[in-house]
Amino acid sequence: MLVQNAEVRFSNYGINANTFECDYVLFGLEFVGGGPVVEFMNLALQEDFSNVRQTIELKVMLDLDETVSMQAWLATRNKTLTIDGVDYQVVSDFRDMKWPLFKNVMGIGTNPVLKFKAKTVGIITPEFIIGSKLEGVIE
Q1: Contact of 6 with 82, CB cutoff 8 Å
Q2: pLDDT by residue (tens digit) across 3-57?
Q3: Half-sphere exposure (Cβ direction) of 128: Cα atoms closer than 13 Å
Q4: Closest CA to 9 of 98, 61, 79
Q5: What is the pLDDT of residues 71-93, one digit of tens each?
Q6: Of the residues 84, 91, 113, 114, which has the maximum number of CB atoms within 10 A of its CB?
Q7: CATH class in words for 2-131
Q8: What are the residues facing 90 on neighbouring strands?
Q9: Are residues 53 and 117 in contact, defined by beta-carbon separation less than 8 angstroms?
Q10: Banded pLDDT at 125 (limits 50, 70, 90)
């Protein structure tokens, strides 16, 4: 699911909160192993979706002070993203993180793409939409 121009609150331990407007927030699913795929004689597939983890990717524009604050927040534990009133406990998922610079009349800033994984396996929101509806709950 893609949300554009969303306000996202970044907090840890319920404190040190900053809210930024993000260019986009993209929700996805990642398989974390486990689920067998069984092929039946009629060529139908039965898939086990119990071992999935939600992913969240977002892009945000930050001025220089906000960039320093965000980098400090990324190094903390117990990170929470609040998107549209729903709290997501997340861990960072950065393999090759880039902080592209931009310059405008207000000074220099960055426009990073940040990627997160939900802390727990399962689907946090009761209805999670990717093309068609996929329903689930936290286990």
Answers
A1: no
A2: 888 899 999 876 678 999 999 999 888 877 655 555 555 555 455 556 778 899 9
A3: 21
A4: 79
A5: 889 888 889 999 988 899 998 88
A6: 114
A7: mainly beta
A8: 79, 118
A9: yes
A10: low
